[in-house]
């Protein structure tokens, strides 16, 4: 913290227009960089769990709001100190919960620059440079994921809004083909849009449908034992709804098992019935970056839209989702905003709000740009492969232990574990591992049973971390089993 009185800039001095206010940049930003570096350098060794509970955090953070404000350096120092006990080391090498990745260094640094530049990523006129950065990043994403080069790409908050954006484009297209303009006339009086999704579709697909006025009660297509949509069941379901505007939601990377729907058969069936095929691939779509895992996505390139996250396997900071639509006119029609004060622009001029629900937004694509420049094609492929290999290593270690069962085929980065074929024991082991703090993983329910879900997506995880985590899980299981 600065001791020189000339750099003590409070809210009162800013209100006065004090000339010294510019000095805050050289104090609190340097402090933030120092404190952030200290946190990041300690990620490997700190317990993964949070050390403070709700009451403790409220007691230290819920301070009275002052009348005159405080010095920025004081705020940054105390914020870092007070928040630290309540942080979960989700960016570290042994966090395996909720498919949350870390953040590669170039993306973290780029994110700081995005905040410093403070640009509206909504359109070229507001930020020419960052609009072009996002345009380049979108092109790289299309190439790496193997989707059509002409697809529209929007950088949104996460998988929820990526699904929303893609399904909004789908809604436009299927109703357009039924001679209904949903943007002009709404849904009242429109033909019913039928939405089919697999038995284990992610909750964000249903929420997106609800927000779009399509209803959350989707037509459910049965899945197999790994959570994959059954193509034969989809075929039968579509045959029963001829001439109805239809959207099919498939999945790349089931949230529990990591399984992939049979896209070749699903895409063929959707074409036969003129149904829009959307693929929710929050983390699974990044398998396309790996030559070893790319066959899991065979046929996915034939879909009409795809949703994924950057803040999962690409390892950029929160938040970053990516919505991709193969039909740019449908994408733009569902999303674009027009106002008298917004300049008219040609289709090839990058305007972010043509592709996202937000008129004003952070330039999220900058972190994607930075991460992909750091990783390159080979680095991204290696990141995907390493995480999958670590998942298989953990699964192998656990499967060799009596009383521990691996429930899924570990085809990607997800490991589904059950202990003693018992719900209570499984939940007890999860709680013990979380409390121990060597690693952190979450519980879930799959096919009516309690399970431990291990998700490996962090760039820092090593084989040693995988072994150490497996040891911690085995120890917790032995202790819980008496």
TrEMBL record:
Lineage: Bacteria, Bacillati, Actinomycetota, Actinomycetes, Geodermatophilales
GO biological process, one term: carboxylic acid metabolic process
Alphabetic keyword roster: Decarboxylase, Lyase, Pyridoxal phosphate
Cofactor(s) annotated in UniProt: pyridoxal 5'-phosphate
Top-level taxon of origin: Bacteria
SUPFAM superfamilies: PLP-dependent transferases
Family statement: Belongs to the group II decarboxylase family.
Listed GO MF terms: aromatic-L-amino-acid decarboxylase activity; pyridoxal phosphate binding
N6-(pyridoxal phosphate)lysine modifications at: 312
Protein name per Swiss-Prot or TrEMBL: Pyridoxal-dependent decarboxylase
Record-annotated membrane-spanning stretches: none
A Pfam family it matches: Pyridoxal_deC
